[in-house]
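Tokens for Phosphatidyl-N-methylethanolamine N-methyltransferase. Go.
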Amino acid sequence: MGIAAGIGVILPFPFYYWLWSYPQTWVDLCGKARDPSKVMALVSHFIKLIQFISLFSVSTLSWPPPLYFWPLIAFGQFLNFRVYQLLGESGTYYGVRFGKKIPWVTEFPFGYIQDPQYVGSIMSLLACSSWVPFQYILLWTLGYVFMIIIESKEDPNTRANPIS
């Protein structure tokens, strides 16, 4: 189960890399009738489910969790929900890469925490470290670090042209 779980954990990152690096292919694939951010969100949620099932398959759950669990999971999920609240679906799911106009946001956590959604996700993963073997948390975290690096090198010239 270890190799399958590892593959499940890293599954979304090649998908995100492809969409970030070649957004026009995704916009073309979605066609005129479908919003590329909405389709990305649907696919991402399905892949996220596979990630969670993969992680659960190698986990040993016990209750109550250690004390560090609560602040890490609470603040990590707060950051995730706050980013989604401020950016919406299109801002969260690469709308700018798909040729959409996404307003610049400066409210907390933006301007205070670099890559707040990834930081929140990593905090949430670390919260589960008493249940999940370290190598899976490390693998998932390295996937986020990989995407932070990829997304930090955004070239506006490679943005997709929206289909009208």
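The chain has one domain: 1-158.
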